[in-house]
Structures are given as structure tokens and as C-alpha cells.
Specification:
This protein is mainly β. It folds into six domains: 127 residues, Immunoglobulins (Immunoglobulin-like), CATH 2.60.40.10; 94 residues, Immunoglobulins (Immunoglobulin-like), CATH 2.60.40; 90 residues, Immunoglobulin-like, CATH 2.60.40; 82 residues, Immunoglobulin-like; 100 residues, Immunoglobulins (Immunoglobulin-like, Sandwich), CATH 2.60.40.10; 125 residues, no CATH class. The protein is 13% helix and 44% strand. It is built from five helices and 50 strands. The strands form 13 sheets. Strands 30, 33, 34, 36, 37, 39, 42, 43 and 44 form a nine-stranded mixed β-sheet that branches. It has a six-stranded mixed β-sheet with strand order 2-11-10-5-6-7, with no helix packed on it. The longest helix has 51 residues. It starts with a helix and ends in a 9-residue tail after the last strand. Its main location: membrane.
């Protein structure tokens, strides 16, 4: 009770004094954690301390009792706190409390205060006692199979304060998704459980850690426990190359990669067939030292580690080899003449797949595959070559002979032959046939309508001979001295066991050459006579026309001579004798003088008399006289009546009529007359 009363009086006194004091905290004490058996320092400093101000340190622990212990006053420490001391410069107002060899009993609240300062500063001192041992992880740590659950427990004993336990996968904290945690604290023991309901292949070899954290990482180090879990999962086969190409006779390596736990056992097998006899295995690889085209196919890499299912990977081996034509057709193929369509297909092995085509051996004519011939005749007979090509390899070829058999075919053209009596006539019949024709018959249909057949040999002037030219037969009919009796139709008929064919010829034989000359002469004479008659008729017609035109011209001349005396030349007016300045154009005065003259010989007089003339009614503007022959040409600009213009030309002159305006010109245009 005495201490309680004293404590109440002290607090009252501090409160009263603090209201009049000028001191204040420069450094308040702060909560501090210290490891057991280490030294702790609580800092406290004031400004504005007066001479009567005393700095005191107090300690109390509300968790154990309510007693307030006075540690020091004015830098002096009570004797019962032997491990405590005040450090710092009192002149600067520093009164720091230092505790050596801190023990768990030193934990509590510490207060640094002055009676005159309100709100005394308290600080919590925490003494950390680490656990003696790291936590322990317990549970079934045997290898687990994928899909199973995992349950683990982390246990930590001792330590003050008790640590907080956390689970980590490596450096990543495990989130409570699909996992379950349970923390139990009993006395000085802490436990936390981990539950993973479904393990995957990715959990294999995972480092699962349990960390004990007391909350003061800078004071007490973390305690960690770690286990590595094993998860068994079935193998997975990976094929880096799904297709492997190898040249025939070369080396092939088929490799697969297997992922699984535990280690798998490998095996190889071929789909639908057995492995090549010379194949060998090395780890996860299948080695074939010398491959052949028969080794092509799919190969399976299988891995088994006791966890189902068994891992499988497929690799296709593709053997590259040159083209090779298969024996799908014979070297000689017989076909029937006249058949509509014939086809033969060429097949070839090879990788890559060959390109197949055909060509005719003699003509190099290309054909597609299958070879298609239509229609079949003896022209299609011959050698045909199948060609198989592929990149990086030489081509492979195989030929066959297409043999056409059937009735004969006459391949020569039908002709008409004209000959003169005494000439030699040859008719050639070319026959293609397989088998050869049994015989060739010539049939003659003469002028008298009778028909007769001719065979090989000579009959009178006609002989027949046969010539073999390659695979064809030629039958030649020769008329040594042709006569008109040989004129007629000839037919070449060839036959064999399959049938026959025929070809018609026409022969015209005329008389000898003298008769031809006579006929030609007579024909020429008749033609010339007709031409002479035509020319004579045209000449007479032309003479009549010109005579009519000449009479009209003379009539006009008579009128002109009657009314028009000879006029002066233009140059006589343009160039008077007394003018020598070279000006050829008449002056205005000269024109006036000419117009004033009215002696019946001028042009104005002609205008006066023109009205009285009923024959020549036109206005004359120009009159031209040419040379001494007295030839005149009349040029009229405007017709005064509908009189048909008459050409006024004699001998050397010529005329041209345009509508109703006749125009007359001289061949010599250098002279012009008025």
C-alpha cells in the first residue's frame, strides 16, 4: 500500500511539473528486439532540460505484474540493476539505457521521462530466444505416383516467441489453392500441415521447405527444413524428326527422346513388318547401317517404366532411290487394225514419285501416261518408249513395239493419169498389211463397160510387178505403150485373212502428138478470128464517133470565122512597140481604148451581134488563137442558153466539158489571146 501511494503521488507530481517545464524529447525510446545473451541499448535524449530537471528510467512488465521499477535518476542506476547502465552525454541531454547479457526476464516496457515533460516515452524490449533445432518435416516421403495425394507435417519446438511456420516450393510460397494448412501450437511446440491432393509430373524432384519465422529476421535467423519429393509418372516419347530420309545404300538413324520417372526401358518395332536384319539399338536410337527401299515404313519407339500407359512415338523412314519401271507390259504388243482405242499403262517405282510419260522412238512424239492410241492403223505401228524421271536421278526407260495386225490398208493416194498414145503409164499401189496380203488383184473397167482382172505377170501391153519396200508392199501396174483402149478405171485390191482394201485409179489416153498439134492449131485459129472481129467492130464504132464530133467542130469554126475576125495576141497589147520597160500587163488606158473601138472587129461588137445569132448564144469572154494554123479555142464563163457545149478542137487541140460551161485549152499554154 505504501508503494501504491507513493506511485500515485509521483505521477501527480510529474503531471503538475510537466505543465511548467520547457524540456521536450529529442529522441524517444523505441521498441527493440534483442537476442538472448546479447546487449541491448534503449535510446533517449532531451532538449531544454533545466538545472532541476531529472531524467529517470523505469521498467515494468504488465504481463507478470503491475509494479513499476525505478532503474536510474540523473544517470545513477539502482544497485539491483547491475547489468544496466546510462550511456551518452548528459550535457547534450542523452540518457541512453544499456543492458548487458540480456535475459528473458529483462523483457518488458521501459520508460524514459522527466517530471516536467508530458507523455512519457515507453518502449518495449523483446528478448528473442531461438528454437534449439530447426523444424522437422514428417510424412510419407516415399516416391508417389502421379495423381496421388501428399500429406506432410512441419513441427518446431522451443523458442520465444514461438515461430510462425510457412511452406515453400523452392523459393515460391505455396498458395492455399488445392492445398490445406493447419497450424497447432501446444506449449512450446508449433505444427503446420501440408496437403497436396493431386500430384503431377511437374511435382517430381520439387524441394518442399518449411520455414520457422519468429518475426525478427534481423535478430533471429530463420530455421528451415527441406525435403525433395519423388513423383513417378509414365514415359512420354518425343520424336525430334517425324520423318527421316535416307539414300538407298546409306545410313539411317532413328532417335526418340523419353521423359518419365523412373527410367524407361526402350524397344523398337516396325509397323506391319519386322525390323531390318542389320538394325541395331543404342539407348533410344535405332541404327540401320545400310538401308534399302524395302526398309521404308513407320517405326515405333516404345518406352516402359512400369507406370501405365507405355510411351510410344512414331518415326517414318523414307528411303530415296532412283526410278525403276515395272514389268507391266511386254516388249511386243499386238493390236487389231481398226480398233477404236488402245491403252497401255506404264508403272514405275521410285522415291520421290517418278514422272511418267511416253514418246515414239522414231519421231520423238510425246504421249501422256497411260499411252493412248486411237484409231489403230498401220501408221500407229512402231516402237514406243516409257520414260520415268525424278529429280537428282537419271531417267529409266523401257520400250515396247506396238504391232498392228488386220486387213490390208492401201496407203497410196487415188490418182488420175493422163497420157498420150504411145506413152508408158505406171500405177503404184502401196499396201500396209500384217500379215502380208495373200495377193494383189488389179481390176480394169474399160470403155466398153466390161471388167477384167489382172494378176501378177504380163498380159499384152500390161504388166504387174510387186516390190517390198520396208514393211510395205508396192504393186505396180505398167502399160508399156498406152492406147485409147487403155482408158478406163483401174482398181487395186489387196486382201488377206482379215479382209481386203481397194484403191481406184483413172487413166485417160489420147491420140498421138500430131493429132494434138492439129487440134491446137484449129483452136488457136478460131480464137484469133474472134479477137479480130471484136477489134474491127470497135474501130468502126470509134471512127463513126470521131467523124460526128469533127463535123460539129467545123460548123462552129465557120460561125466563128464569119463573126470573129482574127484578134490581136495578148502580148501585142501587153507589149506595145513604144514600151520597152518589160511590163507585160496592159494598162487601164489601153483597156479603155480597146473598149471604145467599135469597128465590128472588136469583142464589144461581138456582144452586139450575139443577140442576133440563134446558133451561138453565149457570152464570150476570151478567145485564144494558137500558131499560124488558125486554131481557135473558145472559153465561156457563163452560158446564156441551154445549148449543149461542143468541143472546139482541130488536130492538135483538146477540149474538156464541165456541166454547161465549156472550157477549151491549147496544148501550148504560153500563148493567151483576147
Amino acid at each position: 500500500m505504501e508503494y501504491s501511494g507513493l506511485w500515485s503521488c509521483s505521477l501527480l507530481l510529474l503531471t503538475v511539473l510537466s505543465t511548467v517545464s520547457a524540456a521536450f524529447y529529442r529522441k524517444r525510446p523505441e521498441a527493440t528486439a534483442v537476442l538472448v545473451n546479447h546487449t541491448a541499448t534503449l535510446y533517449c535524449a532531451f532538449d531544454g532540460l533545466g538545472p532541476t530537471d531529472e531524467v529517470n528510467w523505469y521498467w515494468y512488465n504488465p504481463e507478470t505484474d503491475d509494479k513499476l521499477y525505478h532503474i536510474s535518476a540523473r544517470g545513477r542506476v539502482a544497485s539491483e540493476f547491475s547489468r544496466h547502465s546510462i550511456v551518452g552525454s548528459s550535457r547534450r541531454g542523452e540518457y541512453n539505457l544499456r543492458i548487458r547479457d540480456v535475459q528473458p526476464a529483462d523483457e518488458g516496457n521501459y520508460r524514459c521521462s522527466v517530471f516536467t515533460v508530458r507523455d512519457a516515452g515507453d518502449a518495449r524490449l523483446t528478448v528473442v530466444v531461438p528454437p534449439v533445432n530447426p523444424p522437422v518435416i514428417a510424412g510419407n516421403l516415399n516416391p508417389r505416383t502421379v495423381g496421388e495425394a501428399l500429406k506432410l507435417t512441419c513441427r518446431s519446438e522451443g523458442g520465444k516467441p514461438l515461430p510462425h511456420l510457412m511452406w515453400y516450393n523452392g523459393t515460391t510460397a505455396l498458395e492455399p489453392i488445392g492445398m490445406f494448412y493447419q497450424e497447432v501450437s501446444v506449449g512450446s511446440v508449433v505444427e503446420r500441415k501440408l496437403h497436396i491432393p493431386f500430384l503431377t509430373r511437374w511435382d517430381n524432384s520439387a524441394n518442399i521447405s518449411c520455414i520457422a519465422d519468429q518475426g525478427f529476421p534481423n535478430v533471429a535467423p530463420l530455421k528451415i527444413a527441406t525435403v525433395r519429393i519423388k513423383v513417378h509418372y509414365p514415359p512420354t516419347v518425343i520424336t525430334p524428326r517425324q520423318t527421316v530420309q535416307a539414300l538407298e545404300g546409306g545410313y539411317a538413324n532413328l532417335t526418340c527422346i523419353v521423359r518419365g520417372n523412373p527410367t524407361s526401358v526402350f524397344s523398337w518395332r516396325r509397323v506391319g513388318d519386322s525390323l531390318p536384319q542389320n538394325a541395331g539399338m543404342s539407348n533410344s536410337s535405332l541404327l540401320i547401317p545400310r538401308v534399302s527401299r524395302s526398309d521404308s515404313g513407320a517405326y515405333l519407339c516404345e518406352a516402359d517404366n512400369g507406370i501405365q500407359p507405355v510411351g510410344t512415338g512414331e518415326i517414318t523412314l523414307e528411303v530415296i532411290y532412283p526410278p525403276k519401271i515395272k514389268s507391266t507390259f511386254d516388249q511386243k504388243i499386238s493390236v487389231l487394225y481398226g480398233q477404236e482405242v488402245f491403252r497401255v499403262e506404264c508403272q514405275s517405282e521410285g522415291n520421290p514419285r517418278p514422272r511418267i510419260s511416253w514418246r515414239r522412238k522414231d519421231t520423238k512424239q510425246p504421249f501422256d501416261n497411260p499411252l493412248t492410241l486411237s484409231p489403230l492403223n498401220y501408221q500407229t505401228e512402231g516402237y514406243y518408249v516409257c520414260v520415268a524421271r525424278s529429280d537428282d536421278f537419271s531417267e529409266d526407260t523401257k520400250e515396247t513395239y506396238v504391232d498392228v495386225i488386220g486387213r490390208p490398208e492401201i496407203v497410196s493416194q487415188s490418182t488420175s493419169v493422163s497420157a498420150v498414145g504411145g506413152d508408158t503409164v505406171e500405177l503404184t499401189c502401196t499396201i500396209a498389211s500384217d500379215p502380208e496380203p495373200d495377193g494383189v488383184i488389179w481390176e480394169l473397167a474399160g470403155r466398153d463397160g466390161r471388167k477384167r482382172q489382172l494378176r501378177g505377170g504380163a498380159t499384152g501391153d500390161i504388166s504387174i510387178k510387186e516390190v517390198v519396200a520396208g514393211e510395205q508392199t508396192q504393186s505396180v501396174l505398167v502399160i508399156t505403150s498406152a492406147e485409147t483402149v487403155h482408158t478406163g478405171n483401174y482398181a487395186c485390191i489387196a486382201s488377206n485373212m482379215f479382209g481386203q482394201d481397194r484403191q481406184d485409179f483413172r487413166v485417160y489416153v489420147t491420140e498421138d502428138s500430131s493429132d494434138v498439134v492439129m487440134i491446137a492449131a484449129v483452136t488457136m485459129g478460131v480464137v484469133l478470128g474472134i479477137l479480130f472481129a471484136i477489134v474491127l467492130t470497135l474501130c468502126l464504132r470509134a471512127r463513126t464517133i470521131w467523124a460526128s464530133r469533127l463535123s460539129k467542130s467545123v460548123f462552129v469554126f465557120d460561125l466563128m470565122q464569119r463573126y470573129l475576125p482574127p484578134l490581136k495576141r495578148k502580148k501585142e497589147i501587153d507589149e506595145p512597140k513604144d514600151v520597152d520597160d518589160g511590163d507585160t500587163k496592159p494598162s487601164a488606158n489601153q483597156h479603155a481604148q480597146l473598149d471604145q473601138k467599135d469597128d465590128g472587129n472588136s469583142i464589144s461588137h461581138l456582144h452586139d451581134t450575139a443577140s442576133c445569132c440563134t446558133v451561138l448564144m453565149m457570152e464570150l469572154s476570151w478567145l485564144k488563137r494558137i500558131s499560124a494554123a488558125g486554131q481557135y479555142y473558145l472559153h465561156s464563163v457563163e452560158p446564156v442558153s441551154e445549148i449543149t457545149p461542143l468541143p472546139l478542137a482541130i488536130d492538135k487541140g483538146f477540149s474538156k466539158s464541165i456541166g454547161g460551161s465549156p472550157q477549151y485549152f491549147s496544148k501550148d499554154f504560153n500563148e493567151e489571146l483576147y
